[in-house]
Amino acid sequence: MSDARTTTETDQPAPQFAWSNMFVRPEDDPRSEGGYHDERSMLVGYLRDYRLTLELKCADLDAEQLARRSVRPSKMSLLGLVRHLAEVERSWFRRVMAGQDVPKLYSPEGERDGAFDDAVGDPAVVEEAWRSWRAEIAFADELVAATADLGVRARMSDGEEISLRELLLHMIEEYARHCGHADLLRERIDGRVGQ
């Protein structure tokens, strides 16, 4: 049986399957197993679990590995995803729902995807990305906890409105999509798959 150091003819890590390759043992998995009793706990719980999944996909990697790009011409990397999701959290919860006039974290106004541009293998860049991501999640969690009605609406920059309920669903979708990207990025780095 091969291990993660074995590579295929294309010089990529060999995939590692089965329980031996799980990111955490099932009994140590910080994510929930459902059991939500109402709409709020379900939406908040699923979003929390996807946030934790992103952390699991990035666990135990150094700065260079986190910054490693997928395939040309893509600029996508795990570090870029962390930075992108910090920006998404900030834009939706601070700028839209809370109405705060705060600048974007990584992209100049009017531009997109700046989070991927400077996602370089520097430990200070990695530390800042995680710090920003966690700060934006903390703000979002406080805002959601302090808002009694999931139907409360906020106006977006295009004049349309979005409810907190719709926003939570959108964030679950955003994380689900990017956790799929993270699966592929992590497998390309060291062959780890699953969870």
TrEMBL record:
It holds the Pfam family MST. It comes from the Bacteria. Residues 1-36 are annotated as: Disordered. InterPro entries: DinB/YfiT-like (IPR034660), MST-like (IPR007061). Residues 1-13 have a biased composition (Polar residues). Residues 25-36 have a biased composition (Basic and acidic residues). Transmembrane segments: none annotated. This is Putative damage-inducible protein DinB. It comes from Micromonospora kangleipakensis.
